[in-house]
Amino acid sequence: MAEKAKKHTGASGYGAAIKLYFKENLGIIIAFLVLSIFLTVFPRTSGTFFTRQNIFNILRQISTNLFLACGMTMVIILGGIDLSVGSIIALSGCVSAGCVARYHLPLGVALAIGVLVGLLVGLFNGAVISRTTIPPFIVTLATMNVAKGLAYVYTGGSPVRVVTKEWQFLGAGYIGIFPTPVVILVVVLIVTAIIMNRTKMGRHIYAVGGNQQAAEFSGIKVARVKFFVHAFSGLMAGLAGIVLASRMYSGQPTAGDGAEMDAIAAVVVGGTSMAGGSGKIGGTIIGGLIIGVLNNGLNLLNVNSFWQYVVKGVVILLAVFIDYFRNKGKK
């Protein structure tokens, strides 16, 4: 009887969690469905959008953005921002590709070094931000330029090509019927959700973002929380860098240009408050899907790339306004 009761409670607990998820994200879920339905039935995209090949293409493309968004969600919940992630993509991808093409290191070692490069930049960001009062915007703006410059110095401004099938598997391969980056993304999302929802560190992230002074008074080591979050963001950017380099068959110093904006857009559209203290990785997932489908739809509609920046800017602005009025209503 006790076991049956426990099973019943567990099932009802999962049901309640799913119900709460849809309740919290109903607005963006509806927006995502409306956008998807529009692209499915619109004459110019009806034959190309809702196909298996295009859906997998979208998922493969958004995986890089969602890697970044996992770290960016934590950073923004803290009330900060990380502008360096796009440049970390370029640097980690170029270094990893160079380890294979130039130094002939084993693939696993090369990929690990690429991720380590991202982690090291994140560790530096975390050390400076946690030990000083310098705003995260300034620190990560500086490391953004340093990482981008190092990527150009290392490559001489030219792509580092790697054409082996083993290299391409991470970004362009499949595990079963699913693209490899999507499988990796699922694992990353699960780990991120566990950190944010099931660990002491996750609770501390929300506490520091909500009220740093109160968190300090309650005994939370604020510096440790900031250090961890920025290190995690760098780690995710390093992972995104090697996956993108694998998908492009090369490490390119121009890779990741503007990637930080797409990551911020996914997080903000997903309902994370720029003021800090609130946000969920579940909302970020929907936000990433919206940005991915929007990019794909604009490409299928042959919208000029310059106008695509305008559209994404408007989407971010709308999300910020919604967040503003939502927070204003709580006061």
From TrEMBL:
Coiled coil: none annotated. It comes from the Bacteria. Pfam families: BPD_transp_2 (PF02653). Keywords: Cell membrane, Membrane, Transmembrane, Transmembrane helix. InterPro entries: ABC_transp_permease (IPR001851). The keyword Transmembrane applies. PANTHER family: ABC TRANSPORTER PERMEASE PROTEIN YPHD-RELATED-RELATED. This is ABC transporter permease.
